[in-house]
Amino acid sequence: MAVRTWRVRAQSLKISEAREIVTRASLEGRISLEALQSLFGIKRKKHGKGRPPVLTEEIKKVATALYTDPATRHLSYAQMYKRLQELIDQPLPSYHTLYRFWRSLPKTAEKRKRSRHKRGGGGEGFSSILLHRVYSPMMRSKTHIALKGLYVITDSRLGGGHLAGARSALQGGARIIQLRDKEATTRQLVEYAQALRALTREYHALLILNDRLDIALAVEADGVHLGQDDLPVPLARRLAGEEFIIGVTAETVDEAVRAEAEGADYLGVGPMFTTNTKPDAGTPIGPERLREIKQAVHIPVFGIGGITLSNAPAVISAGADGICVISAVLSAEDPEHATRQLIALCSGV
What we know:
It is a single chain. By secondary structure, the chain is an alpha/beta fold. The chain has a domain of 198 residues: TIM Barrel, CATH 3.20.20.70. Helices cover 46% and strands 10% of the residues. Helix 4 crosses helix 5.
């Protein structure tokens, strides 16, 4: 679409609407981010080299006040971020980090009203079409299913294969499923992912793909899980969009803090214990490391690696928001029953 046409249509937009869609509108290549910024007079702030700024207690305090104060709580997230830039005399974390923080707070009446309006479509203006039609495949809300509790990872060698194992876990009550297969071809992974996407939708569950963002987007999965050597989170976010779930593996506090600052939605911390299902998992770091990481970040933290019905309580007691398991469910004599038992252990998180 020509830039001149965009400029004509943009005249009907409020500046707040423009600011909310400007970063989304370049995702599918219809117009460059720089051109949109020029149209709306929006300058993109760049951080210097080194680690991105983190969400400090001072920033959290001011951000919470903006969210709850009667004078400002009606503002959009983009408007609150701009106001925060005016109030805080220090580098801010990325917009995505603040957006996730605000979304984690209890919704005010104004925010609930705005959410209902957005879900309802509210007319066929340019901004409505852009946000709800052009980008609808990427607008999967992360709030429908909480990122906590039991998280089951499939294995082609266990539980009768990916589909059968996932079905048993879902029937037992699991609502987060990850497809992981390091040996399958791309075509095979696509076939597995399509079958699991249909199955998880039947149970209103999340589908996460391990490593392969391309396949996750192709089958309209809910998210992707990335390791330390995989695609960097900022690039994944730019490709997948704001509502797409991105999980990151972390073994140290530094890795965890960096992942959160770059925009990760949750962390997989481990290995907690010795595991036979992932030969390259490394030396167990134990629940104490998870406790340290949980105290350093504000996003959900899942323990992973060698977790069983007997040692899961130690991981949960360390502060985990949930546990990731493979053999504890898929190698059980009754996977469905094992799933229910593990969910019962996680019920307090």
